[in-house]
Design brief:
This protein is α+β, with helices and mostly antiparallel strands. It is 17% helix and 23% strand. It has a single domain, classed as Umud Fragment, subunit A, CATH 2.10.109.10. The protein starts with 52 loop residues before the first helix and ends with a strand.
């Protein structure tokens, strides 16, 4: 018996079938590029559409209302133009002048001697009653500083304030405040030779307290006089003006151009 090694079967490499996912390359989907500006070109700018005249016409009433509201606010609380209808403040102010009156200063301060102030007409009595359309017309003209059919306010100069003792006597007249003569370069002609005087005999008529040197101006009041003394209805006639009746202080002449200047 022959000892022979058993014959070995040839080795066979067994190759497993490839996995279904093996060797698969993931592909990123490619989308067509969006249309756009070429490199180096500026992006297009959307131009605003031009508004037609009809659109502008539709906005006009709104703009008018806004302008009126702003004008009323300014007139009521900040400043206002006033038309000068008489010669009572000549030569400082002439008939036809328009003055600018600020309404803020006296909210934080007090009137001073020499200030030119506008005060409400009702110190002379009740205002005349006008029909509504006349009131509208007067209001519109008043906004522009134009003359109206109703003289609603007056303009004079403060010559004494609350607590002052005032007299206006002599020939020519001399204004004395607390016993001191006050120089008045603004008086027409430089001197007043014969307009209405003021002495202690007038105090009771004007509801003022009489003193040895004249009339005592009540606290919270001012005594006003026109620069044209012989043609001015002022505190010598109506008495002192309460500060609450003061509309504001005139600080500049705005019209005509030949008369521009401060006050």
């Amino acid at each position: 018996m022959t000892n022979e090694e058993p014959t070995k079967a040839p080795a066979i490499d067994v190759v497993a079938p490839p996995h279904p996912e093996a060797g698969r390359t993931e592909l990123t989907p490619v989308h067509p590029p969006e249309e756009g500006p070429a490199p180096g070109d500026d992006p297009p700018i959307d131009e605003p559409r031009k508004k037609g005249w009809r659109h502008g016409l539709a906005e006009l009433p709104v703009l008018i209302v806004v302008a009126l509201v702003i004008a009323v606010i300014i007139k009521s609380f900040i400043a206002q133009a006033f038309y000068i209808p008489s010669a009572s403040m000549y030569p400082t102010l002439r008939v036809g002048d328009r003055v600018l009156v600020e309404k803020i200063g006296y909210r934080f301060g007090e009137p001073s001697r020499g200030d030119v102030v506008v005060f409400a007409r009702d110190v002379f009595g009740p205002d005349k009653d006008f029909p509504w359309y006349e009131d509208v017309r007067n209001f519109a003209r008043d906004l522009l500083g134009l003359p109206t059919s109703a003289e609603e306010d007056y303009i004079k100069r403060v010559v004494a304030v609350g607590g002052d003792v005032i007299s206006y006597t002599g020939s020519p007249r001399q204004l004395r405040v607390n016993g001191e003569v006050v120089e008045e370069p603004w008086v027409r002609g430089g001197t007043d030779n014969g307009s209405q005087s003021l002495n202690k005999r007038d105090c009771e008529r004007l509801q003022m307290e009489a003193t040895e040197d004249g009339c005592l101006v009540p606290e919270d009041d001012v005594f006003v006089m026109g620069d044209n003394r012989s043609n001015s209805e002022d505190s010598r006639v109506i008495g002192p003006i309460h500060k609450e009746k003061i509309v504001g202080r005139a600080f500049a002449i705005a019209w005509p151009p030949s008369h521009l200047g401060g006050l």
